[in-house]
Design a protein that fits this description.
2 domains; 73% helix; MetI-like fold; 2 strands; mainly alpha; 470 residues
């Protein structure tokens, strides 16, 4: 079989694609120059500024038109690639568009439902009033759906650990000589003859499985300790703040490295840390429920029983790898990375929550709740915490991005995850050895990592923008 080209029969769109990008770049440069010039003239000329503002508006419209052209041509690539049948005609981009078809459908359904019911979805719904927020959300959900469908083997073309003869450092689109497997390495092969595309897709599952949930656990730990420290103050606040500052005194990367080194792992310290840290989310949920429903004993008992049963099941499966149902599979090396993320991020979350709570506890509605005779934990969790949700949600998105970078850095240095793991950091490290000759094995996971972090940052910006409007 002949190797695939990047665009196949869709090469007729290449001049349009290049032209659209050229127009966008020129429009962006012109818009930047005109905007800066118009601001300077407006300051110096006062009332004569409107004509310059009009020029800046036209330049901004040109940028919007350029973005629309790029999006339109990209959409044409996707539709054409999905519609064509012959792989040689589809090209690499067309086949990739077809492989990601479940992701496109899931994204379309998510956006359609979200836009339809956005006025009923609170802050999440308001996110769709922000162009930046929607762009970030689309990028993040692309990788989330890619991870989910990749784990179900609906996207990958090969086993990410399989080594095929003759495919070492194969260029993108190379034909596979062996029978009974997918006939192409879409994004080429690495230095161990493994499929780069399949490893990139499977690597998304590693990130999605660790980064959001580890960050969520860190937030539960930080909130559980930060709220009482701010509300009660005194010696409790002094002690917890001292512990947080003590941990934060270490450089984050260095502390992360120390926790995942084999010497520390062999002492069993990460397991003991997990045993302590992972109890706090259970305490958080239990107190959250009890403080809300303590006046209704029947409902309180039912909700607490369900929450504690699920929490203890997760606790046994994650912290001790002793799931009685055999459903949770949490390898020791994954636990080490997970608990390290929680331990490193929790002090920062603690300080953010403490700072917000110190301000909010002086508000009138908190004094009103105290006057009504509400308990301290009810006030902390149902009066103070909801009013701090905006900054916390924004920080949550940003912290997932930081965690993603940390995971990539650990994988790059061969720490934490297993050596054959398809995580993006390990794949970049494998590809860097021959980067000057064969850049594609490292380029694909690097772009994936960059795009996910970019999407999380854009999503955080959109959430911040909408939360400030509340």
């Amino acid at each position: 079989m002949e190797p695939l080209t990047w665009t196949g029969s869709l090469a007729i769109l290449n001049p349009l694609f290049v032209g659209a990008w050229a127009f966008l770049i020129v429009a962006f440069v012109v818009s930047s120059v005109v905007s800066a010039f118009s601001v300077e003239r407006a300051i110096s000329a006062g009332a004569s500024a409107p004509t310059r503002i009009s020029a800046a508006s036209w330049a901004s419209l040109g940028v919007t038109a350029g973005l629309a052209l790029v999006a339109l041509v990209t959409f044409a690539y996707l539709i054409g690639g999905i519609a064509l049948q012959d792989p040689q005609q589809k090209g690499i981009l067309g086949i990739l568009a077809t492989r990601f078809l479940p992701v496109w459908l899931a994204l379309a359904a998510t956006f359609a439902l979200s836009l339809t019911f956005k006025r009923r979805l609170g802050l999440y719904g308001k996110l769709f009033d922000s162009t930046i927020g929607m762009a970030g959300f689309a990028i993040v959900m692309f990788w989330v759906f890619t991870a989910i469908f990749g784990a179900m083997d609906l996207i990958v073309t090969h086993d990410p650990l399989a080594q095929l003869s003759g495919m070492k450092n194969a260029v993108p689109g190379s034909a596979v000589t062996q029978e009974g497997v997918y006939p192409y390495y879409l994004l080429g092969g690495d230095n161990l003859a493994r499929d780069v595309f399949s490893r990139m897709v499977k690597g998304a599952w590693v990130v999605v499985r660790i980064a959001p949930f580890a960050t969520l656990f860190a937030f539960m730990v930080g909130i559980t300790l930060g709220l009482p420290a701010a509300y009660y103050g005194g010696k409790l606040d002094t002690f917890l703040t001292f512990l947080a500052n003590l941990i934060l005194a270490f450089p984050v990367i260095l502390l992360f490295y120390l926790l995942v080194t084999p010497e520390i792992v062999q002492t069993g310290l990460p397991t003991y840390m997990a045993a302590v840290l992972f109890l706090l989310p259970i305490v958080f949920v239990a107190v959250l429920i009890h403080s809300r429903h303590f006046t209704d004993l029947r409902k309180d008992a039912i909700y607490l029983t369900i929450a504690l049963a699920i929490g203890l099941w997760l606790y046994l499966g994650i912290a001790w790898d002793a799931d009685p149902l055999g459903i949770i599979d949490f390898p020791p090396n994954l636990l080490v990375v997970f608990v390290s993320v929680v331990f490193v991020n929790a002090p920062t979350v603690f300080r953010i929550v403490r700072g917000l709570a110190l301000d909010i506890k002086t508000r009138d509605y908190v004094a009103a709740a105290q006057t009504r005779g509400e308990g301290p934990w009810y006030i902390m969790l149902w009066e103070i915490l909801p009013n701090a949700r905006g900054p916390l949600i924004v920080d949550f998105c940003l912290r997932i991005g930081y965690t993603t970078i940390l995971l990539g850095t650990l994988g790059f240095f061969g720490l934490g995850l297993s050596p054959e793991s398809p995580d993006w950091g390990s794949t970049i490290n494998d590809g860097r050895k021959l980067l000057s000759i064969y850049p594609h094995p490292a380029l694909a996971p690097a772009l994936a990592l960059m795009s996910l972090v970019l999407g999380l940052n854009l999503l955080a910006d959109g959430l911040r923008e909408e939360s400030l409007r509340d």
